[in-house]
Write a sequence for this structure.
């Protein structure tokens, strides 16, 4: 992926002709210069622009949510109503309806997940930030890792270790010879594919979204400075950047929701025995 | 320089530092949601549900209370009615009894009075009779004396008069034996005296 993206950039640059051709944005977008660097207990911490965006997004989200619940009223004010709508979406729509009747205790976790991802995703279209920390694989990976540990732990706690693993290894209701085929798939799916797809789905969406926006924006800027047909393609590129921003808005919300809903279904599978 | 740095990195292999930063950030979010946001929202949801359900419950309770009060009132009314009927019946029975008692008492009284009256009457009659008898005796003697004194040798007509007189007296006295024998016996008794 690294090489292909770079190769594309090189090709574009070459085809533009000369050294002053269009420098397509590459992976460098996701590795901004470090603002501060320190080492703690042998672990290197590189504080970059994206790290700061993560902190700002998280802090603003928490500030908003805390402000929404600071003085809870039975008849909500505007701020409380917005916060409550978001929380209810997760609590009722996911914790109660997806996880199941015993899912309400998971509402705070799912809501934290949803709001955290949403706030960070949202930075993708906030002017001057315009990059989502979720397009750095570390952050979706952290979330998926926590989810992975949690749904396995809940499965063991609710069903007992023996039954939980037995049901995964030997899916009930499957003819015995089929276990040769089903068991490896189930193991792979439950312990590898689920967390990996959870992380990669979010990361890839935000990564690709950012790339699209950058390509169209930089392309428009580049084309406006050119002659020939650029006068036609420049505005199209700029328009596409705007359209893609709105598309990105959809993706931002959708990916946060999808991540939470999928975690809800995994939790549901852990709480309720396989049918 | 940044591009060169990117070349050495695989986007799917993040540095440990970044993972730790992500963990810390999400841990803070989790903490805030578990300790602050979720309890507050749950509290609001509960309060709201209670406000709605509480209103309905209160109305239902009130209705039930009103119904119970009505039932109680009706029961009391019915009770009062039966009680009143009972009292009325009892009063009627008592009145009847009193009337009966009074009647028997009156009857007894009247019977007693009658009996006493009769007794008195009988006594006075006896007394009168006795008095009369003595009087008659004296009268008869008187009369006899006088008759004898005037004309002892008078005819039988005068004797008849005396006899008739005595018979009459006797008849008055007994009222049942107007024959000469009784008179004669009375006379005889008086005469003996």
């Amino acid at each position: 992926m690294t090489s292909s993206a770079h190769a594309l950039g090189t090709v574009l640059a070459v085809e533009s002709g000369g050294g002053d051709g269009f420098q397509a944005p590459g992976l460098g977008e996701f590795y901004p210069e470090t603002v501060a660097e320190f080492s703690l207990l042998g672990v290197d911490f590189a504080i970059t622009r994206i790290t700061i965006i993560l902190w700002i997004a998280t802090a603003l989200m928490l500030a908003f949510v805390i402000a929404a619940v600071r003085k809870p009223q039975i008849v909500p004010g505007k701020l409380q109503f917005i916060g409550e709508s978001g929380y209810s979406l997760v609590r009722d729509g996911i914790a109660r309806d997806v996880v199941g009747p015993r899912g309400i205790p998971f509402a705070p976790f799912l809501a934290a997940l949803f709001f955290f991802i949403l706030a960070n995703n949202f930075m993708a279209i906030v002017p001057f930030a315009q990059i989502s920390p979720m397009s750095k694989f570390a952050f979706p990976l952290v979330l998926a890792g926590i989810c992975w540990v949690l749904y396995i732990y809940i499965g063991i706690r609710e069903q007992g270790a023996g039954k939980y693993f037995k049901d995964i290894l030997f899916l009930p209701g499957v003819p015995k010879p089929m276990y040769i085929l089903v068991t490896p798939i189930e193991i792979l799916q439950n312990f590898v594919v689920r967390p990996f797809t959870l992380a990669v789905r979010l990361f890839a969406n935000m990564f690709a979204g950012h790339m699209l926006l950058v390509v169209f924006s930089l392309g428009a800027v580049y084309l406006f400075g050119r002659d020939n047909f650029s006068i036609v393609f420049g505005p199209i590129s700029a328009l596409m950047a705007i359209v893609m921003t709105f598309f990105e808005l959809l993706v931002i919300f959708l990916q946060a929701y999808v991540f939470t809903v999928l975690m809800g279904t995994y939790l549901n599978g852990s709480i309720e025995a396989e049918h | 320089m940044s591009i060169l740095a990117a070349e050495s990195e695989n986007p799917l292999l993040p540095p440990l530092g970044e993972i730790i930063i992500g963990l810390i950030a999400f841990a803070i979010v989790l903490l805030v949601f578990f300790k602050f946001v979720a309890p507050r929202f749950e509290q609001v949801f509960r309060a709201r549900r209670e406000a709605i359900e509480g209103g309905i419950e209160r109305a239902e309770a009130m209705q039930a209370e009103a119904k119970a009060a009505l039932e109680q009132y009706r029961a009391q009314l019915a009770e009062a009615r039966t009680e009143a009927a009972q009292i009325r019946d009892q009063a009627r029975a008592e009145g009847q009894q009193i009337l009966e008692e009074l009647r028997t008492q009156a009857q007894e009284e009247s019977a007693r009075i009658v009996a006493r009256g009769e007794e008195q009457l009988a006594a006075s009659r006896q007394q009168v009779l006795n008095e009369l008898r003595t009087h008659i005796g004296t009268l008869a003697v008187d009369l006899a004396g006088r008759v004898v004194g005037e004309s002892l040798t008078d005819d039988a007509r005068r004797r008849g008069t005396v006899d008739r007189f005595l018979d009459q007296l006797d008849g008055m006295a007994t009222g049942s034996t107007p024959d000469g024998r009784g008179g004669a016996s009375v006379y005889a008794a008086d005469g003996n005296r």
Observations:
- The radius of gyration of chain A is 23 Å.
- Helices of chain A lie at 2-16, 49-70, 78-99, 107-122, 138-159, 161-169, 179-224, 230-271.
- Residues 1-5, 11-19 of chain A have pLDDT under 50 and may be disordered.
- Strands of chain A lie at 34-40, 43-48.
